[in-house]
Structure to design on (121 residues):
């Protein structure tokens, strides 16, 4: 059995994450080092916009700020407390232009990038 882990907010290991439209900051705290199936963490984005197609199933929980997501002909304005389900293959336009957002994400499988011959951004 693997150990239960606590990740204090003040100690999250945020790193710069390069995305096609700029950069975000991300703390990938649930990963291959402590899980056999899931990935998860916190991402912070500000004044960046990028398109992405999910290669995994993912759940986002908006903690602070707001984000705009365009998908399937819809425009979704997300704010604190909102949850977004993203099935594998979802085509998205993430828009943080003029705004900042901090959100928790959980995804499956954690090794999506390796399975697609990629490196995580």
């Amino acid at each position: 059995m693997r150990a239960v882990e606590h990740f204090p907010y003040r100690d999250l290991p945020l790193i710069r994450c390069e995305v096609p439209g700029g950069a975000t900051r991300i703390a990938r705290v649930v990963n291959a080092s402590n899980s056999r199936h899931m990935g998860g963490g916190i991402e912070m984005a500000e004044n960046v916009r990028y398109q992405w197609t999910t290669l995994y199933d993912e759940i986002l929980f908006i903690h602070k700020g707001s984000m705009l997501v365009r998908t399937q002909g819809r425009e979704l304005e997300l704010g604190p407390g909102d949850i977004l389900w993203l099935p594998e293959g979802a085509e998205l336009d993430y828009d943080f232009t003029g705004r900042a957002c901090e959100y928790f994400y959980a995804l499956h499988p954690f090794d999506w990038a390796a399975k697609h011959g990629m490196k995580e951004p």
Summary: Residues 74 and 92 are 10 Å apart (CA to CA).
